[in-house]
Each structure stands twice: as structure tokens, then as C-alpha cells.
């Protein structure tokens, strides 16, 4: 199995472009697939730089309905018209970020996906858990067992009743199975990595060997003491697993350094263009 980051927020040794967003290329025994496609066609440019032929991809998984994970889907679909694209049926909803009352009418910023994605002929909308084959499975959260990360407070869903807190039912998680090894890949873990791992254990009666995921702990302003303690709590809980963790994107480098101090070699960071060794 090979797992290569095609784009995330930070510059890696490969020299690939970087941007706020996420995309992974994964090669298994049976599949060449993509988990998310970043904010734009940057993921396609980086794939070309890395010598990855995206025309050979047979499967795309969109982790959730936000632009920074889906912006490259339309450019990809123009290049590859045969790959099946999987997303939750609510991933094309009206999702917004609250950028603060100081911005007045510009307070609510659309962060959802390009509506043309829903019209693609090779799109497969699913609802809840779904098994693609013996290598690839998708699952969702049925009931959270832990609090949402506090950084999710500003992520909203527009409804007929106004802007409401997003319930993140449009988010699902990919499990890769190869031999006796299982790899769990999430996009932003908006539902909280601890709740996601609890759901995984309930489904598989085991712990994943590797988790690759953003933890959605990044902020544009300074953290308060309570938020720093939240980061530390998550890291301490993760040390109870035998799992190796690789994070990126929405975790943010500041939160990563706090977690790394607690988790040591159990936690690594995947920069743009990096290959995850497993």
C-alpha cells in the first residue's frame, strides 16, 4: 500500500505546491484511489509533478462537503471520466463558516462544494456506512461519544430556519484493509477523532494500525487555556491506542507541536507531497 499526500497546507521536501486543503493518492493491491481533491486543480498539478497518472484512478472518496476537499473534483472529472466518486448524500448541502459579526453581511461565508459535482454521471451518493469491496469500506458516526472539537463552533449549515450548527452527517471515513492491516483515513475529523475511533472499534472490534487525519484544531487567532487543554486531552487519549497517527491540514502546526510533545513517535505530520511510510 502506498499513501501519498497530493496537497495540504504546508511545504514538504518534494517541493510540491501547498494550499489550505487536503488530498491523498492511495495505491492498494486492487485500486488506485483519491481521498479528497484539495481546494482546486493544485492536486492535479502536484500529482503530475510526483509522476502519478490520475487517469488510472478508479475510485474517489469525498470525505465531507467542504470546498477545500472538493475543489479539484471537477478538473479531475474532466481528466478522468470513469472513476466512481463516493460521497454522502448530504455532502452537497449549504455549508457556511461564521467569520464574525464585525463583517456584517459578509459574516457568513459559503464553504460547500461546487454544485456541478452532484451532476457528474459517475457520482455515487450514499447514506451511512457502505462497503465498496473487501479492500475499501466507508463508515459514519451514529452517535458521538465525545465532545466536538471547539473549533467546529463556527461551522454552520444554512436551513429554512436560518444558520444552525453543522451536525456533520455529511462526513464519512475510509477504511483500507490489506492482509491483517487496517488503515483509517479521515479528512478533517469534524465529528472528533475520539468519537471516530470509538465508532471504528464498535464496527471492527479492534484498533486501526494507522490513522491518517486532520484533527480540526487549527485557529487563526491565539488559543486560550481551555483550548490548549482540549488539544492536550485529545493527545493523551490517543496515546492509549497502539495505533500510529499521521496528521496534517486542519490540525495546524501549533496544535501538532503540542500533541507531538505528548505522543512522541506515535504522531507524525504529512506535508504537501510527502509519502507516508507504513
Can you describe this structure?
The protein is an alpha/beta fold and 278 residues long. It has a single domain (2-276), classed as Ribonuclease Z/Hydroxyacylglutathione hydrolase-like (Metallo-beta-lactamase, Chain A), CATH 3.60.15.10. Helices cover 20% and strands 26% of the residues. The protein is built from six helices and 18 strands. The strands form three sheets. It has a seven-stranded mixed β-sheet. Strand 14, helix 4 (193-204) and strand 15 form a beta-alpha-beta unit. The protein is globular.
| Overall CATH class | Alpha Beta
| Strand/helix succession | EEEHEHHEEEEEEEEEEHEHEHEE
Please, how many helices?
A: 6
In terms of DSSP E residues, the strand content is 25-35%
Question: What is the architecture at the second tier of CATH?
Answer: 4-Layer Sandwich
CATH homolog superfamily: Ribonuclease Z/Hydroxyacylglutathione hydrolase-like
Number of strands: 18
Basic shape: globular
Q: What is the residue-averaged pLDDT?
A: 97
Query: Could you tell me how far the N terminus lies from the C terminus, measured between alpha carbons in angstroms?
Result: 8 Å
Amino acid at each position: 500500500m502506498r499513501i501519498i499526500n497530493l496537497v495540504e497546507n504546508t511545504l514538504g521536501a518534494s517541493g510540491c505546491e501547498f494550499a489550505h486543503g487536503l488530498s491523498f493518492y492511495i495505491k492498494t493491491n486492487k485500486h488506485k484511489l483519491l481521498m479528497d481533491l484539495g481546494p482546486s486543480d493544485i492536486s492535479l498539478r502536484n500529482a503530475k509533478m510526483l509522476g502519478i497518472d490520475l487517469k488510472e484512478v478508479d475510485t474517489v472518496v469525498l470525505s465531507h462537503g467542504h470546498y477545500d476537499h472538493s475543489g479539484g473534483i471537477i478538473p479531475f472529472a474532466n481528466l478522468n471520466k470513469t472513476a466512481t466518486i463516493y460521497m454522502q448524500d448530504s455532502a452537497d448541502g449549504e455549508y457556511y463558516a461564521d467569520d464574525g459579526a464585525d463583517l456584517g453581511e459578509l459574516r457568513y461565508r459559503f464553504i460547500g462544494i461546487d454544485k456541478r459535482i452532484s451532476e457528474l454521471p459517475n457520482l455515487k451518493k450514499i447514506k451511512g456506512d457502505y462497503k465498496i469491496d473487501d479492500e475499501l469500506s466507508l463508515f459514519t458516526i451514529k452517535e458521538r461519544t465525545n465532545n466536538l472539537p471547539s473549533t467546529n463552533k463556527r461551522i454552520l449549515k444554512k436551513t429554512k430556519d436560518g444558520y444552525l450548527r453543522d451536525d456533520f452527517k455529511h462526513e464519512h471515513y475510509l477504511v483500507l484493509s490489506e492482509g491483517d492491516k487496517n488503515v483509517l483515513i479521515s479528512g478533517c475529523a469534524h465529528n472528533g477523532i475520539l468519537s471516530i475511533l470509538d465508532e471504528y472499534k464498535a464496527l471492527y472490534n479492534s484498533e486501526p494500525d494507522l490513522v491518517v487525519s486532520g484533527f480540526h484544531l487549527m485557529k487563526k487567532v491565539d488559543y486560550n487555556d481551555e483550548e490548549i487543554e482540549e488539544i492536550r486531552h485529545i493527545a493523551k487519549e490517543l496515546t492509549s491506542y497502539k495505533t500510529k497517527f499521521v496528521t496534517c491540514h486542519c490540525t495546524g502546526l501549533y496544535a501538532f507541536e503540542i500533541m507531538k510533545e505528548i505522543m512522541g513517535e506515535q504522531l507524525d505530520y504529512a506535508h504537501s507531497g510527502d509519502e507516508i511510510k507504513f
